[in-house]
Amino acid sequence: MLVAEQLTKAYGRKTALHEASFTLSNGITGLLGPNGAGKTTLLRILSTYHQPTTGKLTLDGVQWSRKNMEYIRSLIGYLPQHVGLFPALTVREYLSYIGSMRGMDSRLLIERVEKVLSEVNLTDKAREKVRSLSGGMKQRLGIAQAILHEPSLLLVDEPTAGLDPEERIRFRNLIKRLAFNRAVLLSTHITGDITMTCDRVFLMKQGRLEAHEHVHSVTGYASGKVWGLYAGREEYERLLGNLALFITDAAQQIGGGYNLRIIAQDEPCAGAELVQPTLEEGYMVWLNGN
Amino acid sequence: MVKRELVQWRYVWTAHKPLFVIPLLLWLLAVIAGTTSQQFSKEMTALVLYPALAFPMLGLMSQIGSSEQKELWITLPAAPWTAGALRPLLLSLLYAGLYAAVLRQYFDAAEVWAGFVSAVLYMQITAVLVALFKHNAFGLCLALCYLFFGMFTGGSGQGPLYLLQWYRQKLGTSPEAFVTVQAAACAAAAVLTAQLIRFRERFHLLKD
User: Fold this and answer.
1) What gap in Å lies between CA A95 and CA A126, rounded to an integer?
2) Closest residue of B to A71, CA-based?
3) Are strands A54-59 and A62-63 parallel, antiparallel or unpaired?
4) Is A102–B4 a contact, with Cβ atoms under 8 angstroms apart?
5) A82 vs B11: CB contact, 8 Å cut-off?
6) What is the per-residue pLDDT across A245-285, written as a single tens digit (0 to 9) for each?
7) B202 lies within 8 A of chain A by CB
8) What is the ipTM of this complex?
9) Residue in chain A lying closest to B69 (CA)
């Protein structure tokens, strides 16, 4: 379990993270926020890439300090946004290389490499060069290096960006499996990733973190503000021009009309009905200050 | 421990083979050229092979200096003295030894000894710069600039850390005049690199 207290990170005069306090226990916690919100800064602090300006961190009861930093690093698995695999190595060589850098015992390493290759479904690619892998396979290899040493904390930074739908679903299922016995922090700006995988959500905006124990509490922000309606083409264009409304979905129907979902304080037009909000809509309302 | 080190070296070699091989090819070229033109081979050894000695160090330090790989590498547990001092020193000694072997054909013993120490120092400077700036290209350029500045100015402003004393001596000094200081600088550079590895989560001097 990770406990963060009053974490702050400042770069010169700019504060990228403001006094973030939270607890990460087993299961997946989503970290959701727009670009520049401070998600990567937070992940970089938790992965020990950056030092926080102020604040206190405790992982599995051990408080982070300069003296035990290498030990703390041995408890963490990290998949950065740009993992930088070695194209000239084979998949198995890459994992062995990372394992040896981590100082793992060679016999244990051989066993673990085979196990994680099977976990991430890359056993049949073990002898192939990293350069020959698809984007999704590279991400799975990235996860494999992060869980090789069985960390108690797994940090994953925007893992599904750029993946095709099949790989995205495969990746979500993988992350879910990995969270059974460890704390996982999944940073993303894709709300679908959060809905499908996360137990808890941290929302971030302008360096400030807001912890939510359930995904539903985020959807709750849009409760009573999301309207569904069927509109013809002219009506749709009229609604598009209304800047007070926020259209979150416009599915074109066979007849030429549209099934719309609209965020609005009041009924946007006659015939609109309140509908159950999604996480994306809750997030949009939160992002725009309710 | 030894086995783990050997595994590390094997993978470092495989992952960055061209950086380790380029100086070896140039070394071979210098040796072959020596059979036809001694003057050409001598100049090639000093002006081409010598600067290229930075490449293997770049290969060894590339994980902390690569914009793609450093984010992961910095977060991996590491033994600072092994990664920052021992490995760079071993690599420097190996390549400087090879370099000295080719120098022996054209220079006297004092010059060869001074050239060997200067080559080690040059590689150590490269390691320090890459570890400090966490950027391969930046580290390499600064190391090359330092070397070429000395080359074109006769070591102006570089004092005893002039890296071509063995090839083009400062007026009134012997080739081995700075050997002791440079050997001490090598040790200091190794300690500094180890400390930069130890505190690698700090000093992000260039923007990520």
Assistant:
1) 10
2) B77
3) antiparallel
4) no
5) no
6) 889 998 888 878 889 999 998 888 888 899 999 999 999 99
7) yes
8) 0.87
9) A84
